[in-house]
Amino acid sequence: MVDRQTPKRLAEAATAWLLDRLGLDQTVRRQLSQTMPSFATSPWYYLGTLTIFSLATAGFTGILMAFFYTPSVTTANASVHYIREELFFGELVIHIHAWSANLTLLLIIAHMSRVIIVGAYKAPRELNWYVGLFLLLIVVMIDYTGYLLPWDQHGFWAAQVGTNLLNAVHEIPIIGPPLMPLVDVGREVFVGGPEIGQATLTRFYVMHVLLLPALLVGGIVLHLWLLNKHGFHRPGGPVEDDGEDEDAVEDAVEDGVEDGVEDEVRDSDAADSADEAAAASEDEATDTEEADADTTSTEVSG
Amino acid sequence: MSDEVREPTVGAVPGERPFWPTQMALFFAAGLMFIGVTILLASLGPVDEVTEPGYNASERAALEEPADPYETPPKVGPAEWYFNGIFWLRVELMPDWVAVVVLPVLLGAILVAAPFIGRVTKLETQAWHRAALVGATLAFFFWTNYLGAF
Questions:
Q1: pLDDT tens for residues A34-56?
Q2: Alpha-carbon span A211 to A202, nearest angstrom
Q3: Which of residues 50-69 of B touch A (CB under 8 A)?
Q4: Which residues on chain A are in Cβ contact (under 8 Å) with B66?
Q5: Res. B81: pLDDT tops 60
Q6: What pTM was estimated for this model as a whole?
Q7: Which residues of B touch A196 (CB under 8 A)?
Q8: Could you say which of B23, B67, B95 has the minimum Cβ distance to residue A171?
Q9: Chain A hits for B45, Cβ within 8 Å
Q10: Which of B4, B79, B124, B137 is 20 to 30 A (C-alpha) from B19?
């Protein structure tokens, strides 16, 4: 009988089935049963989440444009012109993409400021701080590589300014000239030669839509995983683990022991489950044999 | 000992909020509102135009001409607005190598070393010290970017 609760029950059953098959049911249940500490419910703690929403907006609009954009010096500008002038809401999509890219950077600056002010960059969260810095660098590089893609005068000459700035390395006293071969290698790899052209556009396009977003997603996952591991830093709270080596070793040993105990428990649980499953399958087999025998006997008797 | 400190961040403080569904719903609502603001801003026009003094919503800017390596436009600047500060510093104040290499490397080194600065120097910073430092840095950053925009 289908009632009003049926769709909800079906959705819950489907979710439970999917999580069970993926082996994530316990993890997800543990995550969802967590609580946010009172200090972390302030709007200042929404900045990281909003950054993810902003990046998702940029990503979604970028995918929409990628259906129509062609990364060639002869057609790139015309394809952007087509998106802007001919496509339904094309101009709005371009502007949303650019605005979300800029707002992302502002959100990251605000998020970083909050982290610095409350001291959340300190031990034991140094690694997450470094992941955050890496993400900032990736976002700046995504912005920079995206600027050239419309292949217009503004973007072309801005890229020219950016790549020419690399020559400043030559002016550094003493260590500058020996570093120039490295700069030339970097220019060859990222710009594709001494001048900005088709090779540059191809490289920037690949970095903008493939390489850097992949690094960004990986970095965000690591960022959130580390946040989950260490929890929120409590402003003005008790002095936390200062990350001294002895403590790290102690923690590692304790974790190792706990993991070992957990593993043993898990193994014994698994063994128990396996025994139960074996017993169940034996029972099933017996039942089936008995059923078969019954059927056979019925057939025979029939 | 670390567990004692780490554990209370999840679930031991009065006034805390369940992550699911309350906090998740609030995050989602805030995210949707943010996307709404982004769409609103985007409907006003391109970033560089809307943020420029004398912006007029009724005047629609034309798409830039295709890139021409042989024709330098009257005004050439850096790509994104946040590079304007470095551009201004190198033009007005200091040699290229200081503005483009030394300053960014120094800033990066400070950010990388930040978690260890207090421990090595035994320097106890309060939140307001750090707030003042962040405020001064941001003021310098936005001021130089503003100057570099013209």
A1: 888 888 888 899 999 999 999 99
A2: 12
A3: 63-69
A4: 77-78, 151-153
A5: yes
A6: 0.80
A7: 69
A8: B95
A9: 95
A10: B4
Residues from chain B that touch A85, judged by Cβ atoms under 8 A, are 63
3-state secondary structure of A35: strand
Contact of B27 with chain A, judged by CB distance below 8 Å, is answered with: yes
Cβ of residue B35 closer than 8 Å to a chain A Cβ: yes
Amino acid at A156: F
Residue B146 CA to chain centroid, in angstroms? 14
Asked if B17 and A169 come within 8 Å (Cβ–Cβ), the reply is: no
Give pLDDT, residue A238.
Answer: 54
**Which residue blocks in chain A are alpha helix, DSSP H?**
6-22, 25-32, 47-66, 76-85, 90-118, 126-148, 153-164, 176-190, 198-206, 212-230, 245-301
Confidence band for A5, pLDDT divided at 50, 70 and 90: confident
Structure tokens at B9: 């961040």
Distance, CA of A31 to CA of A224 (rounded, Å)? 12
Q: What is the ipTM of this complex?
A: 0.86
B104 and chain A in contact, CB less than 8 A: no
pLDDT exceeds cutoff 70 at B27: yes
Cis, bond preceding A71 (omega within 30 deg of 0): no
Angle at A56 between CA A52 and CA A58, to 5 degrees: 120
The amino acid occupying position A36 is M
User: Is some CB atom of chain A closer than 8 A to the CB atom of B101?
Assistant: yes
Between A152 and A275, residue with greater pLDDT: A152
